[in-house]
């Protein structure tokens, strides 16, 4: 059957080519036009489908992965889900070491895709044997028929976005993009997109979003790893307690830091103003835009693209749960959505 009838051989053919959607209300009184690249439209509901697919296909091309082999990864959830999805279709075993900070919904989703999951303590140093990096490394060493995706230190993570997300944004904005605003975790998304866009137009300004409690912004400014920057925070998938080589710091013009609380409120605001049900880091990216606007970053002629990395359904027990918001001390008059449920 033909693809133009919207019929596909498998769900992998639907990865990428996500829509760019204009933000109409949130930024109504901001200078510039704002567009969101909504990565929840990927079949695995996040941008990580792109890297899982690209890295696994590349390993197959290089002959280091054949059916029945095992794919191992450390993941805050989204990459794991995408790897599990690709593994299910292609016939690989999937083992995932996740942080205990990941939401229970995310962990259940990984299991439902057939992955074996190890939950590792979140607040230990990266070189602690219990950290999810060390657990994944050990499992890889113990399992000879396995590959370790190692997204934080894998250049193919950058390549995936250089070859797909970057060109898509360039075409979708007809080359008129002036700013990219994207969260940085592994840094693959922002670095890959930036590399492509700056090759087309070196004046495109690329702004990374970092969390308070993460080392990325300070490292970008000083090129020094400052342990004092590190402390626990809530947002999953954004910021880091180490320096990932999948981040090209030279491709990023500056970083903006955002708080857990404001990012959570902004995620809710995106949902109930733009009708886009997005994840916590989408709130973080949009929060960064609000701060940049206050700094006078944008002109009326600017075209700003913000990456919304994943879907809100992954945060039903967190950002979209009133009890969780209350427990964090986040719920107050500032909230855009005080629940409007009436029990009859
Ligand atoms: N948002 C979410 C929800 C993520 O899971 C990640 C990946 N850790 C990011 C943003 C950041 O993307 P990247 O790793 O490509 O920097």
TrEMBL record:
Domain Tryptophan synthase beta chain-like PALP span(s) in chain numbering: 12-310
Keyword presence, Transmembrane helix: no
Gene3D superfamilies hit by this protein: 3.40.50.1100
Domain of life of the native organism: Bacteria
Cofactor(s) needed by this chain: pyridoxal 5'-phosphate
InterPro entries (alphabetical): Cys_Synth/Cystath_Beta-Synth, TrpB-like_PALP, TrpB-like_PALP_sf
Keywords (A to Z) from UniProt: Pyridoxal phosphate
Keyword hit for Phosphoprotein: no
CDD domains (alphabetical): CBS_like
One Pfam assignment: PALP
Stated name of the protein: Cysteine synthase family protein
Organism whose genome encodes this protein: Winogradskyella marina
């Amino acid at each position: 059957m033909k693809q133009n009838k919207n019929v596909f051989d498998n769900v992998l053919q639907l990865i990428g080519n996500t829509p760019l959607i204009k933000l109409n209300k949130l930024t109504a009184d901001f200078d510039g036009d704002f567009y969101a690249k909504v990565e929840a439209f990927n079949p695995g509901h996040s941008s990580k489908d792109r890297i899982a697919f690209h890295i696994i296909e590349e390993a197959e091309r290089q002959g280091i992965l054949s059916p029945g082999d095992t794919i191992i990864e450390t993941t805050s959830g989204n990459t794991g889900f995408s790897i599990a999805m690709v593994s299910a279709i292609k016939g690989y075993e999937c083992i995932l070491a996740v942080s205990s900070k990941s939401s229970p919904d995310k962990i259940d989703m990984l299991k439902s895709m057939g992955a074996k999951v190890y939950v590792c303590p979140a607040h230990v140093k990266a070189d602690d044997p219990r950290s999810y990096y060390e657990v994944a490394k050990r499992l890889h060493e113990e399992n000879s028929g396995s590959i370790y995706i190692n997204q934080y230190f894998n250049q193919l993570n950058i390549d995936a976005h250089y070859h797909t997300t970057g060109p898509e944004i360039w075409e979708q904005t007809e080359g008129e993009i002036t700013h990219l605003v994207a969260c940085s975790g592994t840094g693959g998304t922002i670095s890959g997109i930036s590399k492509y866009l700056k090759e087309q137009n070196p004046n495109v300004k690329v702004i990374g979003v970092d969390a308070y409690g993460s080392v990325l912004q300070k490292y970008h400014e000083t090129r020094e790893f400052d342990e004092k920057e590190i402390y626990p925070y809530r947002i999953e998938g954004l910021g880091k307690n180490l320096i990932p080589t999948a981040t090209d710091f030279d491709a990023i013009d500056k970083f903006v830091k955002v708080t857990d609380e404001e990012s959570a409120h902004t995620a809710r605001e995106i949902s109930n103003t733009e009708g886009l049900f997005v994840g916590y880091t989408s709130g973080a990216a949009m929060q960064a835009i609000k701060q940049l606007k206050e700094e006078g970053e944008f002109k009326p002629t600017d075209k700003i693209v913000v990456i919304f990395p994943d879907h809100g359904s992954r945060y039903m027990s967190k950002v979209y749960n009133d009890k969780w918001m209350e427990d964090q001390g986040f719920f107050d008059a500032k909230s855009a959505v005080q629940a409007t449920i009436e029990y009859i």
